[in-house]
Amino acid sequence: MDTPESITPGLYIVSTPIGNLGDITQRALKVLAQVDLIACEDTRRTGILLKHFGIENRLVSYNEYNKLRRTPEILELLAKQKAVALVSDAGTPGISDPGFYLIRAAIEKNIRVIPVPGASALLAALVVSGLPSDRFVFEGFLPKRAGRRNKRLRVLVNESRTMVFCESARRVRRLLNEILTVLGDRRVVVCRELTKKYEEVIRGRVSELLELLAARELKGEVVVVVGGYEERDEE
After folding, report:
1. pLDDT tens readout for residues 201-216
2. What angle do CA 95, 85, 94 make, to 5 degrees?
3. Domain ranges, residue 18
4. Residue 124, exposed/middle/buried by CB under 10 A (0-12, 13-18, 19+)?
5. Conformational region of residue 191, where left means phi above 0, alpha means psi within -120 to 50, and beta covers everything else
6. Which of 116, 145, 172 is the last residue of a domain?
7. What percent of the chain stands above pLDDT 90?
8. Checking DSSP bridges between strand 187-192 and strand 200-205, what pairing results, if any?
9. What is the CATH number of the domain that holds 162?
């Protein structure tokens, strides 16, 4: 009788679907089933994912609010040659989420960090945007305060690379207005609910999208892709 294949000790950075469950990889499923512990932002959301694929494993929450307390606990487990999977609510851990803190702490302790790549909202949005993707910069979420948001955008005025932002659906129009004021009427692409049933990709100039979205109430997950200044100046 064959014995189950053992898993190498270390911290596994496991990408999970951003909407369509069919996007999970076979390797990710194998790792999630075999590790000693899964650290996740929300145990309920990850529990639903595991249940869908018939996986039972130990879950522990790891998020912005408990990362300082949880990190030493997870590092202690890893030091005992255990395998731990780190997952976010959706997509690739460590990008605009607290997973970066644990990854860096593990590296500082000379613990092996192993990528299990897969879905990523920022890359999905970039490749469908139609904007140059050979060079780009990921800005994530802008600060909430108006002054800090404006300061961040002013730094990007002469940025020639395509820029990718995350934003909540209810604040997309605010972001577009700020981009128009600070960066000008760039080409912009609003990607909503990527890989999900109501996936939508809206392309145009900032002014055009503001007019188009004026009477709409957006819902769901949103990524905004903005053209760099060289692309704008060629028009």
Report:
1. 999 999 999 999 998 8
2. 10
3. 10-116
4. buried
5. beta
6. 116
7. 90
8. antiparallel
9. 3.30.950.10
